[in-house]
Amino acid sequence: MLQKAFEPQCKAVTSHCMDKEQHRRRGLTLFALALGSFCIGTSEFASMGVLQLFAESLDISIPVATNAITAYAFGVVIGAPLVTLAAARFNRKTLLLALLCIFIVGNVLSAIAVNLGMFAFARFVSGMPQGAYFGAGAVVASYIVGPGHGGKAFALVMTGLTVATIIGSPVATFLGQNLGWRNTYFAVAGAGLLAFLALSVWVPRTDALNGGPIAQELSSLRRASVWGMMLVAALGIASIFAVYTFIGPFVTDIAVIDRAWIPLALALFGIGMTLGNLIGGRLADSHPSKGLIIGFGSALIVLAILASFGGNVVLLMIGLFGVGATMMIAIPTIQVRLTSFAPEAPTLMGAMNLAALNVANAIGAWAGGAAIAAGFGLLSAVWAGFALTFMGLIVFAITQPRAPQLAEA
Distances from the Cα of 310 to the Cαs of 175, 272, 302, 384, in angstroms? Predict the structure, then answer.
């Protein structure tokens, strides 16, 4: 699926031969890693599904409520490099378990928050482990499967995040609608505890997963090509979150249908992301930039249609599916280029990959909320996403010709 997308990163990790017991546990280890990413993805995307519920409960407007979603994204962006570098010498299993502890605490705090300030802080804490988790997960997956299969293994770990948009987020939203939004976060914390137990049992304890020098990780941050690709991702992918954040209001206030349709709308978005992921992985294998150009270009068309005709239930659902699919077509190409620019810093690059996408989360949610708050209507959030993706495509067109030279430098 995304084997090529993560191959440069995973090849940089020393792989070791497994004994028979490790071989039998390989599938369970990969499942445990995917379960952790599933919990993290559910926590992130479920907040958008229960946006209206916690906004009403905390007595704040929807545009103001998006600050909590932005706080989560900032937690990822800030936590990705800081946590990764601070724990550079930690054993990867120890790091994964510590990160899930922080994740569980953040979601429990989210469930008991009594005002926006406390809730935003709790979401910030919940987001801090995300980037480092995927970076460390990449290293563990590469070690577990042995030489030649690291990319495929990491793609399986990332599948947990994709499945969260199809199953985790809709189920958590349904739970919030029927049992209260606070129980959504209690449930996510409970799932995180299961992932913690699975990792503690099924990830091997070995010195081979010890960390390395901080200087080796930091060396990648001196490359302009890495920062250029992160800027493209932060701008271009932001439209996903400018749309996903407001799916609930789109369903109830624009299409004027019952809120029971919100989980279905979330699931359609997730299915689109999964299919786009498959297409994007193949394009990334065959061409260094075609996937991004096709993804961003087709996303602009879908965004324009959704912004213009989102009041029609059928077109709304098709549009949500289309936005998820087209934007995910671009992401594997971004991953291919970013990891190929700095294969010697696998953990940090894995973390920075997620950091860039969560900058997109913050920008998209903020831009959509700002457009709505300015009085342009709910669907103006889609136009805000359109503008951001267009900017990302322009930045890519400007920086693309120099990327090979920048990578070599």
Answer: 26, 17, 11, 15
**Beta-carbon contacts of residue 39 (< 8 Å; ≥ 6 apart):** 100, 103, 160, 164, 168, 188, 191, 192, 195
**Could you count the other beta carbons within 10 Å of the beta carbon of residue 340?**
19
Are 358 and 40 contacting, i.e. CB atoms less than 8 angstroms apart?
A: no
Residues 6+ apart with CB under 8 A from 178: none
- Cα dihedral 313, 318, 319, 325 in deg (nearest 10): 160
What's 140's DSSP letter? H
Please give the structure tokens belonging to residue 279: 């297409």
Q: Which residues contact 56 (CB under 8 A, 6 or more apart)?
A: none
Residue type, 294: I
Q: Write phi, then psi, for 287 (nearest 5 degrees).
A: -155, 140
Separation of alpha carbons 80 and 93, rounded Å: 17
What is the SS3 string spanning 99-137?
HHHHHHHHHHHHHHCCCHHHHHHHHHHHHHHHHHHHHHH
Average pLDDT, the chain: 82
User: For the residues of 174-192, what is the DSSP string, one character each?
Assistant: HHHHHH-HHHHHHHHHHHH
3-class state of residue 348 by DSSP: helix
Closest CA to 99 of 156, 33, 4, 48: 33
Could you report the per-residue pLDDT of 52-91, keeping only the tens digit for each? 899 999 988 888 888 888 899 889 888 888 888 887 778 8
Cα separation, 73 vs 85, whole angstroms: 19
Q: Note the Cα 151 to chain centre separation in Å.
A: 18
In degrees, to the nearest 5, what angle opens at C-alpha 334 toward C-alphas 331 and 339? 125
Residue 223 CB neighbour total at 10 angstroms: 17
- Rounded distance, CA 120 to CA 141, Å? 32
- pLDDT for 122-137, tens place per residue? 999 999 998 888 878 8
Q: What is the pLDDT of residue 166?
A: 83
Q: What is the DSSP letter of 78?
A: H
What's the one-letter identity of residue 106?
G
Concatenating the DSSP letter of every residue in 258-290 gives: -GGGHHHHHHHHHHHHHHHHHHHHHHHHH-SSH
Contact between 180 and 88 (Cβ < 8 Å):
no
